[in-house]
Amino acid sequence: MNVRVFASELEAAAACAAHIAEALRDKPSLVLGLPTGRTPLNVYRQLVHLHQRGEADLSRATTFNLDEFLGLPPDDPCSLRAYMDRHLFRHVNLAPARIHFLDGSAERAEWECARYDARLAQAGGLDLLLLGIGSNGLVAFNEAGDSLQAASHRVRLSRETRLGMASFFGDDVSKVPMAALTLGMGALFQARRIILLAFGMSKAAAVTALVRGPITSHCPASLLQLHGQVEVWVDTEAGRGLEGTS
Fold this sequence. Notes:
30% of the residues lie in helices and 17% in strands. It is α/β, with parallel strands linked by helices. Strand 2 (31-34), helix 2 and strand 3 (62-65) form a beta-alpha-beta unit.
């Protein structure tokens, strides 16, 4: 596991966006796994900036987002699809047909999850996966617990996770949906390359557990220790427990 500690979140975000742009030049048909939340916002801003300068071409890329709130249709302004439209999709040249998302308003969550897994398999899996990490060690919406699921699935969100998403609902945690659909650990683990981003003091304990702790379902991100192509990019606050890690 390669750990890089950056002086600031903005420095890490700029480096990540440049890395994505380079990967797109090497493989224009790149299949990207994309997260939401606060962590990737500056990455997306930097990627839009690179696109506007002609340095990031996404016209042949394919994207799969990692999760969506259960019960929210794609056009709901609080949906994660709407988040991606606001912060990335409408500002770059991604072909709409190459954008893939779980549908939180699907009538049967199980069928929707199976459809999504099949579509990702048809695309050949993820070439490059961006991940955030929750303060409890979750990745995507794979919550900490006694067990983890390999396939995409419906998940009940912990209060800690819902508190972390409250800023997208006017800081009212009561408005954050109780459940979501998420890619499972299998699809995440099968990504050919992974960059996990973490910023701020609130992520320090989770990052330390990810890198140095035991592999356990109580810190889902810890399973990434078994993956051969993972990079962990953090700012100095999130990496404060990793002194001496290379």
